[in-house]
Amino acid sequence: MPEDLYDRYQKAAAAHRQHHAACTACTGSCRCPAGQRLYESFSRLQDGYLNRQRQQRH
């Protein structure tokens, strides 16, 4: 069974937080290439999840 969008979004958030906590190159306003990739993945999944939530309310 494919992972639910919410689960993927939460896993991406956790991966980004874990990387950010350990990476000395990442700051609040600047990310290393791996950190940027993780952030973009999290952001894209979060946007998709929130958009789906908005659509279900209407």
**Distance between the ends:** 27 Å
- How much is the average pLDDT? 92
Share of residues in strands: under 5%
What would you call the shape? elongated
Describe the main β-sheet briefly: none
SSE series: HH
Query: Pairing-aware structural class of the strands and helices?
Result: mainly alpha
Number of strands: 0
List keywords for this structure.
58 residues, mainly alpha
What report would you give on this structure?
The protein has 58 residues and is mainly α. It is 74% helix and 0% strand. α1 (5-22) packs antiparallel against α2 (33-57).
Task: Give a short summary of the structure.
The protein is mostly helical and 58 residues long.
Present the secondary structure layout.
Elements: H1 5-22, H2 33-57
